[in-house]
What does this fold into?
Amino acid sequence: MKTIQRISTNKSARFSCPRRLHLLHRAGFTLTELLVVIGIIGVLASILFVAIGRAQIKGQGAFSRNNLKQLSTGYIGHDVELGGFMPHAKVAEGTWVETLTRREGYEQEVFHSPACSPNQNVSSGHSKMAWRTTSPESTYEHLTRV
It folds into this structure.
């Protein structure tokens, strides 16, 4: 029974200390602490956004390389089987885009790079006009900056 009284005496002694009472009644953060935390979160978010942007550009570059590999495979297959180049302009069999689409079963996304905005003023099929873009820099310059 004496042990129980000592414990209860210690509890009352603990709460009677004014310094500890002040710590128990403190509710929340100061303005400075909140601003520091918000600043740290802002810096971390900006680093994350830069990393996401770089990853997106690298992903677009990989996608473009894959598209170019598919197109070159189609060109080589056409040359091996038929012994000639693809038509570069509109001919009776169609354009080179139509020939590859029909022959290899390619989707339209293969003929465009996601790194560049397509030029809406021209149609696909002409080798000199189908690869032009509306961006101020070439696709090569855009992808080599990565």
About this structure: Residues 31-82 form the longest helix (52 residues). The CA atoms of residues 21 and 27 lie 12 Å apart.
